[in-house]
Amino acid sequence: MPGAFKQTLFALIAASSFASFVLILVAMGTPKWMTGKILCKTGAELVNATDPELVKFIGEIYYGLFGGGKMRKCGLGGRRSKFTIFPHLVKQLNTTLHVLIVFFLCAAFSFALASLGFCIFNIIKVPYRAIQGPAGIALWNFLAGGFAVLVVTSFMAAVKLHNLTERIANFRENVFQFVILEEQYEDSFWLCVASAAVHGVNLLLVAISGIRFPTLKTKTEEANVTAEDIMY
């Protein structure tokens, strides 16, 4: 059985791996990865709206990996609508990149579960292979954290380089054109960042578990041998 110190560290890693798994599931299930303000450019140009009047043409949008919604304002009040990314909207986006983001997210929570399982195994049993010892736990945490980082960077690339918000805002808009005034990453996005950070901390804990601390040994008293001891 591993020592009490290692068991405590492995228990902490197991708890944080489970927390990372929950964070990723919550992030996948919520539709607010990004929010923003959208301007109905066509409507504003038609009436030649000035700054005080532009409020009537500024709506809102939010979306996640699988759907979202928006409120469009084109001078006649707000109109709310919802949309789903799959199967139609994804064709208007960078399909490969968006599918990769979903794949990376699934891989991240799968390896987080693997880390949890291997931590429990190492708490109750002495590892007899490197892949099942601290090296194995480090491997699964590295993979889980790496895929979480890929999710974050890929989503940021889709937003900044491929105009993700603008493409979604103009989906099925045949008359009006919308431009993005403001974008803001929301809680679900930051949950993925937190998941990556959790696995980074786990790697540090695995490194600490490999440190061999010096043990204090009590000095044994020298035995006094007498003639009677030799005889008997």
Automatic annotation (TrEMBL):
Its main location: membrane. Pfam families: Clarin-2. Belongs to the clarin family. The chain crosses the membrane at residues 9-29, 97-124, 136-159, 188-211. The gene is CLRN2. The keyword Protein transport does not apply. The lineage of its organism: Eukaryota, Metazoa, Chordata, Craniata, Vertebrata. It is found in: Membrane. This is Clarin-2. Keywords: Membrane, Transmembrane, Transmembrane helix. It is a multi-pass membrane protein. PANTHER family: CLARIN, CLARIN-2. It comes from the Eukaryota.
